[in-house]
Amino acid sequence: MSESSGQGAEPVAPGFETISKSSWMGFIKNLATFTGDLSTLSAPSFILSGTSLLEYMSYWFEFPELFVSIVDHEHPKDRMLAVLKWYMAGLSREYASRNKSYGTEKKPLNPILGELYYGSWDSSKGKVELVAEQVSHHGPVSAARVHCKEAGISVDTHNMYRSGFSGRTVYVNQIGQIRIHLDKFNETYYLTLPNISLEGLWYMTPYIELYGSTYIVSTSNYITKIDYSGRGYFSGTKNSFKATVYEKGANPDYVAEGVWTGTSKVTDTKSKTTSPFLDYGTMDAIPILPRPYSEVGEWETRHVWGKVSSALARNAYDIVSVEKSTVEQSQRDMRKREQEEGVEWKRRYFEWKPDESSARNLLAQAVQEIIEPGYWVYVGDTQPECKPGDHPVRRT
Ligand SMILES: CC(C)CCC[C@@H](C)[C@H]1CC[C@H]2[C@@H]3CC=C4C[C@@H](O)CC[C@]4(C)[C@H]3CC[C@]12C
């Protein structure tokens, strides 16, 4: 990912071949005058990714073995380290996988209210299953439940965020959280999500950098603080991190550091031994296996956005705008009808619940910021028999 203009022929990033420098610069200049949350920005088609942001929930779980093996450790500090390992590997998928060698981040499709996504992974312990739902459109919030019954491990996560433009970069403040529950130990982990910035915009090479700190707090009283730094910060190396694992009020047990898209090592501070932690380059990510198209219904993301993404894949931008408007207009009509009938949209799998647990207080203390007063909890399928005529997209 080079930000310099370089010598000779410029490499052309995949997906960016058809974008002219002048239309890109026009968009960036336009962006500079935009105020408000960027999810409401109507971006030109050439900058759109064909993937809905709802599907991005699955990136975290693309190393299913790291996920299910969290329960294999007897000591809580080792479970905390295993959660950290899973999280650091997930970061690479969530924030860097669309930018393997160039800055090629695009604007994901903004999921419609009630959009659904289902899929699974195989693991040595059993199936890891994901159900995701767009629980809010304005501002956007996706919620997901991931569960491995055999391993007794479940996750509730949602990704609320605020974004804006500073003149040079897009910055995103993530307010959502990940929660992991381990049945066997009756233990819950709260994970916060990093602040991100989108760099390289003026060079037509957008890629994500992380900054600030995130926390993992467990009901076992173990806490991890992770500090992020990019190029130009203290370490000077891109995608660097340093994570400290400690029991509340005590000295660190483990310190892990390195590059989250590359290699990192971990030091056991008691025995003073250092060993390899992650080597991302040698790990094979396993993409989600989506539930078959014919089984999922009209609200599933591929049904909602299929026509838009296939037009995007062909660079047929005129068709993209028509199809995208159809989806968006159908949604506006639906909201209008609800208003007229005095009904509120009913979420299918998730419910917002206030959280007054002690773990939440521990997190608030560690983070020293205002954290959300509750979270989106999976409550099972509340509408198992959906009306077949209830289409999210109406083509007239
Ligand atoms: C490509 C450019 C120039 C247009 C601007 C697009 C911006 C708004 C897009 C590009 C990549 C996007 C991010 C990609 C991944 C995630 C992780 C998810 O869990 C929360 C949203 C978040 C953090 C997105 C927020 C919006 C985002 C920053």
UniProtKB/TrEMBL annotation:
It comes from the Eukaryota. Signal peptide: none annotated. GO terms for biological process: membrane organization. One of its GO terms (molecular function) is oxysterol binding. InterPro entries: OSBP_sf, Oxysterol-bd, Oxysterol-bd_CS. One of its GO terms (cellular component) is membrane. Belongs to the OSBP family. PANTHER family: OXYSTEROL-BINDING PROTEIN HOMOLOG C354.07C, OXYSTEROL-BINDING PROTEIN-RELATED. This is Oxysterol binding protein. It comes from Schizosaccharomyces octosporus (strain yFS286) (Fission yeast).
